[in-house]
Specification:
Four copies of one chain form a homotetramer.
Chain A: H1 25-40, H2 59-78, H3 89-93, H4 117-135, H5 141-170, E1 194-197, E2 200-204, E3 220-224, E4 227-230, H6 236-244, H7 256-265, E5 273-276, E6 279-284, E7 287-290, H8 302-311, H9 319-327, E8 361-367, E9 393-396, E10 413-415, E11 424-425, E12 429-431
Parallel strand pairs in A: 8-11
Antiparallel strand pairs in A: 1-4, 2-3, 4-12, 5-6, 6-7, 8-9, 9-10
Amino acid sequence: MPPPTTAETTADIPADAPAPASPTLVGRYHEVRDLTEELAAPLGPEDQTVQTMPDVSPTKWHRAHTTWFFETFVLQPHRGGYQPFHEAFGYLFNSYYETVGARHTRADRGQITRPTASEVGSYREAVDRSMAATLSSDIGEAVHELVTLGLHHEQQHQELLLMDIKHVLSCNPLRPAYLAHDPQRAADPGPLRWLDRPGGIVAVGHDGDGFAYDNEGPRHDTLLRPHRLADRLVTNGEWQEFVADGGYQRPELWLSDGWAEVQAGGWEAPLYWEQVGDAWHEFTLAGRHEVDPHRPVVHVSHYEADAFARWAGARLPTEQEWEAAVAAQPFVEPTFSAAGPHPRGAEGAVGPLRQAFGEVWQWTASAYVGFPGYTPPPGAVGEYNGKFMSGQVVLRGSSCATPPGHARATYRNFFPPRARWAFSGVRLAADA
Amino acid sequence: MPPPTTAETTADIPADAPAPASPTLVGRYHEVRDLTEELAAPLGPEDQTVQTMPDVSPTKWHRAHTTWFFETFVLQPHRGGYQPFHEAFGYLFNSYYETVGARHTRADRGQITRPTASEVGSYREAVDRSMAATLSSDIGEAVHELVTLGLHHEQQHQELLLMDIKHVLSCNPLRPAYLAHDPQRAADPGPLRWLDRPGGIVAVGHDGDGFAYDNEGPRHDTLLRPHRLADRLVTNGEWQEFVADGGYQRPELWLSDGWAEVQAGGWEAPLYWEQVGDAWHEFTLAGRHEVDPHRPVVHVSHYEADAFARWAGARLPTEQEWEAAVAAQPFVEPTFSAAGPHPRGAEGAVGPLRQAFGEVWQWTASAYVGFPGYTPPPGAVGEYNGKFMSGQVVLRGSSCATPPGHARATYRNFFPPRARWAFSGVRLAADA
Amino acid sequence: MPPPTTAETTADIPADAPAPASPTLVGRYHEVRDLTEELAAPLGPEDQTVQTMPDVSPTKWHRAHTTWFFETFVLQPHRGGYQPFHEAFGYLFNSYYETVGARHTRADRGQITRPTASEVGSYREAVDRSMAATLSSDIGEAVHELVTLGLHHEQQHQELLLMDIKHVLSCNPLRPAYLAHDPQRAADPGPLRWLDRPGGIVAVGHDGDGFAYDNEGPRHDTLLRPHRLADRLVTNGEWQEFVADGGYQRPELWLSDGWAEVQAGGWEAPLYWEQVGDAWHEFTLAGRHEVDPHRPVVHVSHYEADAFARWAGARLPTEQEWEAAVAAQPFVEPTFSAAGPHPRGAEGAVGPLRQAFGEVWQWTASAYVGFPGYTPPPGAVGEYNGKFMSGQVVLRGSSCATPPGHARATYRNFFPPRARWAFSGVRLAADA
Amino acid sequence: MPPPTTAETTADIPADAPAPASPTLVGRYHEVRDLTEELAAPLGPEDQTVQTMPDVSPTKWHRAHTTWFFETFVLQPHRGGYQPFHEAFGYLFNSYYETVGARHTRADRGQITRPTASEVGSYREAVDRSMAATLSSDIGEAVHELVTLGLHHEQQHQELLLMDIKHVLSCNPLRPAYLAHDPQRAADPGPLRWLDRPGGIVAVGHDGDGFAYDNEGPRHDTLLRPHRLADRLVTNGEWQEFVADGGYQRPELWLSDGWAEVQAGGWEAPLYWEQVGDAWHEFTLAGRHEVDPHRPVVHVSHYEADAFARWAGARLPTEQEWEAAVAAQPFVEPTFSAAGPHPRGAEGAVGPLRQAFGEVWQWTASAYVGFPGYTPPPGAVGEYNGKFMSGQVVLRGSSCATPPGHARATYRNFFPPRARWAFSGVRLAADA
């Protein structure tokens, strides 16, 4: 009998992908763009087309949208005589920039069968050629900044691509893998330890040295109270205790909106967990496997993180507490593997605040609002972050699906509190 | 610049496809199965995967479901030692047979990226091999009947495949063609003429000679009143007059439910009509073209057909009136072209009741209920037609998208009165 | 402790209300109008205001809308110098007459607290005074017909008022009664007997003698096949057998749309049945009582009626079969009690086709379409029946909630097949 | 002609209601309870029953729920031998206390016609008698605190009652008044002046002296940056300029979620504004009147407040900025009139930060989360505030509909950012 579906087996897993390291912008441009294509490579045309919920975008849409960004903000205004690759792509691949013009409805992205995945490849190649020519000429500071922004934008979409395709594949009763392989059991991370953290005035926010999004600044003083932070992430084993203790059946543990989601969505465990016989399994990009108690829990909403913390007699950290602790220790670039990213566990993690990066985004107690003194930059690019400052919650750190070179202590990720399809997990905090 | 999307141009249009004509069942099996693949051939993997509304099924689903029918109802019960191609396909490709077991949610068919279009091809080939072996052995009458039913079932899905892909492609702002070519203007069909038809007792329903679905019988007497039938279909030109006369703005012309749909859906013209400048264009499988006033109007709902008839001072025929008239004249097999089916016009049509077949399905005034004495056959195959006898309206004739050999005077097609994505049009009737 | 809610007890049940019998039109006008107020009398202002689903209208809306009918179609055009009682009432109390002007959204009728129930009473009195003056003058035939139509229209709304308030009260966890009293057990109706009915051509439809709605004609010949009709209605006891036999869990018994409703609505028994301990109870206008096995089942949808018939090895009658049988036996005016109408049982019912009227409306197998030759009358009154001829099913007979004098053999009631809040039940039929 | 609807005219407007001032708890109990009944007095039974959106509760529900609070948390646990007034009222009138037991669905509160408004009055009287007896006995500190909490809880519902009935009456095309009277034009408040406010560490939150909700503490230090606050509220005249300048058509002014609401809701102006001819009118509790340019704008969402501030080149204040400024000036009890509360205007307002209380709640830039160190109290009463700390935005101050004695500088009101039916308006802030 033939193998049931494509790409479920893979002979050799790609080695870890390094962070973009080229000394030139054009070099980094190609490094980033190539990783996008590498991430899409295990996915066939069907995989790249489907949208399983409004939050999800098709793989080929991500590949095209990131290309449209360079075409719209770099090539069209700054490359003389540039002709758009296709007149309709501006309409199809604009994501949310109101000031750039009309755009295709987000929830209908999965209705577009053409351009095909292959044609999107041609689009990428054409734009890459023009970009390479542009970048080898004398570009000014403003264009340099736009290209840099475009590369970070594309790295964001690399993580979205992985989040989204995981959701797409999970909706298939066959539970096909992005890249199948058998994970080894992770080592026991040992008991959680509390790090005592002092109060006082500390400066947080990006200091302008190196790239950062607008929402990471301005750097400003903030007043902390003495507190404690967990030295590692909450594990699947701990989450199983929460489930077994009726965590999903006890309204007193939940925020009111969270409890409504639990009931409306029939939540009984993190997204992608399924009970197979007596055991919890979880769907991963490497296929469905038994839940490993030593790895960090992942794909929980803010509501679940908050309820877990209350159950554990703790709370979530504020983003300022998180940043102050992480900024105080050396930054170590996390490893990234394109072969089915999944949290690894605490082994080898350095601290004192271990697993800050490269495992799961960590929900904070902080609503996503502008830092004091923040104002969005003018123009279309200014729509980038500021207009989402309502109804969302900040996550800090980075995840196993965050591409290499994209993590930093001031990074402010954000999602609505009910969202579960990001690689999001939990670090506990407590008052002193 | 590269061509924007695949398959928009085609050098030579396939010649008309003939009706299955092989003297053997195995021969007809291959003829029907091959036509399905021929119809899918212009469609890439992306095209074959998407579902743009719950009524629509992906192309590869149609290809797999028709295969599942033979596997489930013929091979599994009647071919010793047969092993299903894939254990999950029964779940994925059952359409609505409750008695056969659980099945995947209809509205989520577009979430399934695997099996791929190519793997569905392998599935078809494997089942075809087993079927060929079975059909070359000594099968009994019951299996012969099941295979015959399966072939007619597949022919139905050939038309659905065309209806569905037309909807899919229409949702793309690029309006890509299934197979692009430039239609010629149709000849003027001349003024509508009324055929006087007598009253009295006539027998309708299938007489058991040749294949028919269960819902076409039992043959029975019915009492007609004298009436008149239009000798041809309503044209686009006549529909444009209706539109221009405020047909879609005058509630007194509409059934109450129909008026609610007009307002909820913002209907201003048939599905697939768009105003381009001052002119109405329509999206066809051959791309978007200016509306041809001489061709029959197509893609109108029962509500629109009924409102048009009221506006025209006429009514829709009952299915008995339609059948009695058509049964009284010779049957001529309509031509079928796989190259972007679209209504042709009245030129060369024979009568007296011209355009009975091969242009558009004709909405009747008859609700879809069982004929007197009808009882569904037992077993899963008995779920075929009877359980839909509620809330739907009968259409008679056949359309340009009906595969060759599938039309007959007793055929009872049915859709909900709001449905517009079938190749449905209007023939008028009136009391004597 | 004070009694929990108003009107739950009533000392003496009103005697049966007679049919309007006055020899003059003005006399019959007052008889009908008075019964409306008598039916509303047990209901407080709160009861009269609420709308618990879009199909339901508040009691005071019924009282006002029937008044608006006389004001709009009789007083304004035919009474010189008449000034509308309130300029906004035309907007508020038009039900669906598109040609009369804009109207308040049906689903929002329950948002209107003013005019109050008492003010609606003043509206009724004022219109009644003007109507009495008009009717005591020399009115022509046309006005006479309009008033007669208005009275039948008001009788229809009397039944709707009872259906609607039953739904309203049923949504209250207190299950308060409209008028509380303890029903006696009904007598055993004995086993169902089949009446053999001949085939052939018979005339059906109203013959123009006495009042009828437009949709009851024209009278016309129809061709029947020999068949059998049950001599009595299906009882609660029989329905309990159906429930106990898994009737609501077996998809093969159901129409496809019906099965979808069963699952979406969580149907396990007729509307208003509740399991209390081991026993089925049902909510009635007289409060909640244990289901009486000898009374006719009531508040079942067409889908349930159809599934029950299939389970019983029978089918539903066509409306022509029903009418032919009932027209062949003497008409006996059913009794009507305003004190919490509820089906009584077969005791004392005359036949041969017993319980034709005054118990429950009887679902037929017939879709609601126009009779041959039917055309709606012109003008606003012509919107009365014709525009609902889509997606609905015919019920025949009358119910315990049908006001006296409103039943006849040609009456064509209609509801969507999923509707359950009418006093609808089942009579079985079978092929000969 | 009779007056169209009840209560549209009122001879004499009640004098301003004073704050509860009795030296005894039982005295204050009666003062608060009496005001609830005074506020309900202009409303008939129909008015008190209806729910026009899920956020709205019927008047009689408010009257019953506040009574249930005392019955459940005071009488049942603390009054020996107390029998509940009605066994089902616990189910019907629990609002959201999960730990107290099952409860009636919030969105269905408008389906309950019984108990009637009058029966709710009897319920209130019976509980008041028991409460009076209890309060005249020797109650301990815990009960004293519960009663005090219950009175503040009832004051909150007094404002909700006014908000809710305003929405109910506004849905009636007659636009009936709660209490009709003709407002006088307000005086011109003069140009907005900016108050310079210093940065530094300040303490905010309730200090425990007098009553406060749990969410107002703990008092804690916070770090402010130098900033400016508007000395008065934004006026209708200023809002009309925003509207005229295309404020509701320019996406660049709006948060992303806000822009989605503008489009989905068809927002063109504040809730309750309607264009009558060329002029903006607004629906008030005193009926519909032309918008007064000198009064504060009211019934705007957080999204609108934020967009207005951006349009004005300013921002919204943080709740800490607001509290620090207001705590620095003397508190003046605002006047309250039960006769159709509506913002008055700046005349006579004292400052420097004028109109802090008694006009409109002032949206802040602060998401509603717990203050540092906040933990909800245990038990059902602990469900009071903490579980809503997600997805809502803080408003500060008080409004014209806030009952007397209920305003204080630390009060933290909160609503979702899209809510508009509260008496909410705007005070601007800016960076120094």
